[in-house]
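Morning!

This is the sequence you dropped in the shared folder:
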Amino acid sequence: MNYLIIIIGPTAIGKTALSIALAKHFDCEIISCDSRQFFKDMKIGTAVPNEEELAAATHHFIQNKSIFENYSVGNFEQEALAKLDELFQKKNVQIMVGGSGLYVDAVLKGFDEFPEIDGSVRNEINTKYETLGIEYLKQQLQKLDLEYYNKLSNENPQTLQNPQRMKRFVEVCIGTGKPYSSFIGILKNTRNFTPIIIGLEAERAIMYDRINKRVDKMMQEGLLEEVKSLYSNKNLNALQTVGYRELFDYLDRKTTLDFAVEQIKMNTRRFAKRQITWFKRTENAVWFDYLTDTKEIISNLSSKILNSKNMPISPNFTSIFEQEFEINFLQCYPNGLLKYTDLCNILQITAGIHADLGGISFSDMQAFHQAWVLSRMRLEITNLPKWKEKITVKTWINSLENSRSTRCLELYCGAEKLVGCETFWVVMNTQTRKPENLALPHEHFTKFPENNATEKRVQKINLGFDFEEVSQYNVQLSDIDIVNHANNVKYLEWCLNVIDIKLILKQKIKGFEMNFLKELNLNDAVIISNCETTYTISKDEKVCFALDLIL
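The structure's back. Tokens below.
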């Protein structure tokens, strides 16, 4: 399923910064939905993201059109949907951000279909507009579709001053003999994504102060010079916008510069009020104060994505889980006993199945660039199961808080407990390679902090001894797992390969403690060292793994 995160809100509220933070977190790209940032020649007055911001995340529909192009909201709808189709092939979460409500609606809902209008009607309207101006169009719409005129007056009065939009309304009314509003809401457009809409807001005084400061900053950055460069084309529709009209009046000697700047601030504040009116009508939008921590917003988005999937929890989920296995000959030593490495695999496979049933598996976590990383593992072994024996592995979560979790496992043959195991896991961001809080909800897992599977808890192995090198090894392709580093069981295998075979075949090993300290990658050269019952694997004199045998 595809998800489009839409960030809405008034101008100067912080939408750009939030969109970049979210794009980094979800490893996706940004569709700009600002009807004036499309134009190459209008950079300062439209608050286009700066070079650093554009480099922080891939943006689309930023300064990609000329002011001389006739670019409509319908054109944007088609191009944006085509681009989203392309982006969803790479990632099922994408972001759209902007303050142009009509353009947001175009992507979310699409437009209604209207009949073809005879060209003569359009020509006649254009001729009368050239003579009578915008008042003629307003009077015609009032006469032909009072309902729609009143709707625009209340919800989007700036549209009544837009000649292109007004001509379209009037030509539909005259050309069809029906009100423009009669064609709205008939067609139901479908989309291949689930929208998740969040809005940013602030108290009005704060919002107005941010707007005033932004206008001052634009003037300092050279807005007047930008407007001067566009003066010869001041009548183009693209330039009929706040920040440009007022300075055109100054250049026409109709106002002073100070007055023009104050008009920009006032008109921007009015525009922000209209944006709020428009966006507050948006269904299912969740609003956040502009100072809300990004982590809180990400948590909310993560929950919405999961909820829209009806949560990936299996109907067979239980907090204590059991899985049956039959030992096959490929898993056994020559004496017919289960290999220690395959024992670890069986335990981890069981943990993985349980996590999958409960919606916190590796595949579930991929949407948030997270993975479970095994940090410590302790096994206490009474006996090893044998070839063809049927075993049952039972598992439960002892604790799960923030980025850390302890999981317990027990292996039974019939009613006899053969193995107890405690594992300690860390949630790792697969991009930053740093621990972070689990993004997925886990409240449905009952935790059992008093139920332990081993006599002793997992612990840190003491490495304060003199170790001697016993072997060297280069990491092979067969050692690498799905997250592109050496699988944790391979560390155990390399160490067991250098110990006395009798300890294994005579089942002298009654358990072991493992600490996983550093990841290893393909072709890494490592050294295996030993001190009594403790073994280490090191790379560049740094310990990556420690094993302590219980004999």
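Headline: The chain has four domains: 3-110+189-217+262-302, 119-183, 312-454, 460-551.

More detail when I'm at my desk.
O.
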